[in-house]
From TrEMBL:
Signal peptide location: none
Keywords for this protein: EGF-like domain
Organism per entry: Magallana gigas
Protein name: Multiple epidermal growth factor-like domains 10
EGF-like domain residues: 181-210, 228-269, 271-300, 311-346, 357-392, 410-445, 456-489
GO molecular function list: scavenger receptor activity
InterPro entries: EGF, Galactose-bd-like_sf, Growth_fac_rcpt_cys_sf, MEGF10/SREC1/2-like
SUPFAM superfamilies found in the cross-reference section: Galactose-binding domain-like (SSF49785), Growth factor receptor domain (SSF57184)
Amino acid sequence: MSTGAYINIALHKPAYQLHPYQDAQYHASNAVDGLKSDMSVFGDECVESEGDQIAIWWVNLTSIQSIHHITIYFRTRDSDSGFRLFEADSFLGFSLYVSITPDIKQATLCFKDINFTKNTIPPVFNITCPVHGQYVIYRNERREDVSYPYDYSSSASNNLCEVEVYGCSRSGYFGQNCSIPCPDINCQNCHLETGNCQMCKPGFKGQRCELACDRGYFGTACNKTCGHCAELEQCSSINGSCLTGCDAGFLGETCDTPCPPGFFGQNCSDECNKTCKGCEHVKGLCTSGCHPGWKGEYCQEECDIRSFGADCIGTCGHCLDVQQCSRINGTCLTGCDAGFQGDFCKTPCDKGSYGLKCRETCGHCQDVAQCSNTNGTCLTGCKVGYRGDLCKRPCDEGTYACNKGRYGLGCKEMCGHCHDMDQCLNVNGTCATGCGPGYRGDLCKTPCQHGYFGEECAERCMETCAGCNNVNGLCDSGCLSGWFGYFCNKAACSREFIGNDSYEKCNNTLDIWNSGKLQTLAVHVYNERRECCSAVSMRIKWGCGKHGSPVVIWKLSFCLLFYKDWDTGYSPCRGGDIPETLWLGHSPSVGMLEQRSRGSK
C-alpha cells in the first residue's frame, strides 16, 4: 500500500517479538502480512505475546531506508473469552523507535505515549517520523519498581494487528514523489522533506558528506575499524577490504579473521610445530604449551636429562640409568637405583628391605625403620648380639655383654642396686636375683616406700623416728620429741636423774658432793633442740697444775672443767685468780653442756 508516492516498506519483512504467545497463530509476522480484515483475537491476523514486565516487537527493513511516517493498527474487537491481554489498557504507555540496529540505545524515539487512556487511545495510530533506519521497534513496559496510572494494565503485551512503515522505495531521493536526488553527491539518505543529508554513503562523513573516512576506518558514518591490512593505507574506506593483503596471522577480504588452529604467518601458510599444543597465529609461538617431552617458545627442544612431561616441568626419579628416563612420562626404562621401586623409581623400598629391586633384607637393626633403603646400613645401630654396619654379623661368644654394672644399647645405662651385681641383665638391666637392702622393682632403682627399710623393704622404721634411712633404718632425719639415739629408741630425762623433763629444771640444776679431794658432780644436760636429755654423774679427782691451775682427771667420754667449789669455798689449787665461770663442756653422745656463772643453782 502507498500513501502518495510513499510505499509500505515493512510489508512482508522479517519480524520478531519478545515472549511470544504459546500458539503459533499469533506470530510476530502477522503485523506485517498486510491483512486487516479481522483484527479480533480469533481472526488470526494479529500479534499476541505473553504478559510480562517488558513487551517488544520489531520489523527489520533489511537495509537502511528513508522513513516518512508509521501507522499502527491495534486490535479493536475483543472475543467473548475475555482475556485481559487484549484490552486497551495493555496498549497504554507504548513507545515507537527507529534504529539502525535492534538496540534501542542507538535508536531515534519517534513517539512515547504519556496521555492516552483506555477511552482515548485510537484504534489506528499515525506518527510522522522522517528518519532513516533499518529497524522499527514497538516497546511497552510494566516494571515492578515504577508506579503507573490506575487504568494501565498490570503487565505489558503486544496486541498489534498491523504495522505499516511508509517511505521511499530507494535511497538518495526526497520530495513528495521521492523523485528528487539528494543534493550532496556522497549522501545516502537525506531528509524526505528538506533534502538535508541525514546519512552519508559508506566511506564518507561531514555535514555534506564531503570528507573521506580517517585512515583505519570505513563504512557508514566511518564507525568501523579496518582489519589487519598489510598496509593500513590500503584499507578501503567504503567496505574495509585490504587491497594489498593481510598482515601475518590473518585472512579474509577485510583481514579480520585469524589463521585457523595449527597455522600461522603470512597468508596463514606456516604450520605450527607438531610438538606444540597450540601456537598463536602471528609468529607461531607455542602459547598453549608443549606436548610432553618438549620445551621452548616453539617446543623445538627436547627435555634435559632428569626432566620430563609437558614443558619439561617433571623431575625424573632414581632411575638406574638416568639417560633412560622417558622424557614423555618419566618412566625409568631400565629399572631403578638401589633403594627404590615403581615405574618412576620415586618410592623407597618397603621397611625391612633395601638394594637393587629391593630384594635385600635388612639385618638386626635396633630400629628397622632406620635401615638405609639404598645399602642396608643400620643408621641407629644394632640390636644386642649383632655388629657391623648391616648388623648381620653375630657377636663372638662371650663378647657381646656389657661390663659389670651396665646394660642396654651401647651399655650406656647403669644397673640399679641389685643384690648380686653379676646378675644385672645386660639387655634390660633387670636384677635377676632381686634387690639389695633398701630398694625394690625389676631394676632395683626405686627406694623403699616411706617408713620401710632393709631387705625387700620388709622392715619398718621406729615410730619415734622422723624418717629413717631406707637401707639400715638409722633415723637420719631425726627423732620425735622426747627421744634420742641412732634409732630414736632412748627416752630423754628418765626419773632416776635429778629434775624433771622441763628445760628450766634441767638447765638450773647443779649438785656437788665433797669427799676430801674427790668430789661428785651431778649435772643435767640438754641437746641442740634444747630438750632435756640426761643427767651426768661423775667423780672428780682434783690436783693442781704447774701454775696453780686446777687439774681434773676423768675417765668419761666428754670434757668437764671445774674451777671452784663455790658452795664450800674450798679450792685445792694454790695461787692465781679464781674464775667466775663454770664450763660444762660438750659430750658427743649427750649434747651441749651449759655454761654456768658463779653462784648459780
